[in-house]
Structure formats: C-alpha cells, structure tokens
Write a structure and sequence with these properties.
Helix content: 40-55%
Largest sheet: 6 strands, mixed
Number of helices: 6
Strand order of the largest sheet: 2-1-3-6-4-5
Structural class: alpha/beta
Shape: globular
CATH architecture: 3-Layer(aba) Sandwich
Order of helices and strands: EHEHEEHEHEHH
Strand content: 15-25%
Number of strands: 6
CATH class: Alpha Beta
Length: 201
C-alpha cells in the first residue's frame, strides 16, 4: 500500500501565518509531514511526501502527482491513499481568535475516505486528551465534509487534517511545543497504521 503525505501551502503563500507572524503554516506542515513519513518508513511502510519542495506547488500539480502514483500503484482502497496536513485559522490572520480543535475533512458523501478519517479521529482521541475534536456525526461518522480541491480531484482515498488553530494563542502554544508536535505526528502515524491494518483483519 502506498501512503502519500501532502504538506499544505508554500513559503510564498500569502497569509497562512499567526497574527504576530512568528508561525508559518507551510513550515509547520512540512515539519509534521516529514516526521510522519520518517516514522512510517522506519516501521516498514511505503510512505512519501507529495511536495518535497518549499515553494507552493499548485493544487492541480499536487493532484497530478497523487494521481500518477495512484495509477501506478492502483487506486483501490488497499492500494494508495493520501493525507493532507494543514493548520486551521478562524480569521484572516490579522488578529487573534479563540477557536480551538482538531478535525479531519473528507469529500461529501459516503466514501472510503470516511474510514481513514475515522481511524485518524480514534488516534486523535488518544493523543490529544483534553483537546477539542471538531466533529459532525450527522452522517454516522466523525469527519467534517467539504469539497476541497485535493479531496475532490484525487483518484484515491483522501483526508485533509486541520491540526489546531494558528490564530489562537492557546492552540498555537500547544502546536509549537515539543509535546504538541509529537502528539500531532503520533496521531497521524497511529491512525494511518490502523487504517492499513484494517485491510488485514
């Protein structure tokens, strides 16, 4: 099974930073994504980054890369999947807000991606104790649904995670801490492995 980790945005993407400017989403996404890939590879899983570059690769090109790999490895549920790493924001980045929480998005409707998202939510419950998980159980599972480009235009299962809020001081303090970074990496690694193992039960 081929595991793809997409790190959102790039060094020149406008906005995408904390109100005080010290936190840059592109850099954090890459730090987390690289750590996830390294942990998975060390455990023997076939994982790689979609975007090794620092510049912002367009959504169209990201999807082309994912789909080329999905065609090569297969795009059935047990062949290829992608998790896209992001950090949320409640506003435009000009001022601080109080929004908190971790969540995962899938494309609207019942898809294979829902199963992957549920595995990630289960791991988030374990690794983010005391933290809010943003959920929507109206369709029977916890993930939120939006037709984000990378969820809509990839051939394989795809989930986008929003790992806290960069414009909330409490959330940002946790994200930047060693504890927070380890928790975010761990929940993705564990959730992904649980999903892969679900095909061998």
């Amino acid at each position: 099974m081929k595991i793809l980790i997409d790190n959102g945005h790039g060094v020149e993407t406008p906005g995408k930073r904390s109100p005080d400017g010290r936190f840059r989403e592109y850099a954090y996404n890459r730090l987390i994504a690289r750590a996830i890939v390294e942990h998975l590879q060390c455990r023997g899983y076939d994982a790689s980054l979609v975007v090794p570059e620092d510049e912002d690769i367009s959504l169209e090109e990201r999807c082309r890369r994912i789909n080329r790999i999905a065609i090569r490895h297969g795009h059935e549920p047990n062949d290829t999947f992608v998790v896209s790493i992001h950090v949320n924001a409640a506003g435009s980045g000009a001022m601080w807000h109080n929004a908190t929480g971790w969540c995962a998005y899938t494309f609207p409707g019942h898809t294979e991606s829902d199963k992957l998202a549920t595995c990630l939510y289960k791991a988030a419950q374990k690794h983010l104790p005391g933290h809010r998980l943003r959920t929507d159980y109206s369709d029977g599972d916890p993930d939120l649904e939006k037709p984000f480009y990378i969820l809509k235009h990839t051939y394989c299962a795809a989930v986008l995670t929003e790992n806290g809020f960069m414009d909330c001081e409490v959330s940002l303090k946790f994200l930047e801490s060693e504890e927070g970074k380890k928790a975010i990496v761990a929940l993705h690694v564990e959730g992904i492995i649980d999903y892969v193992n679900s095909f061998h039960q």
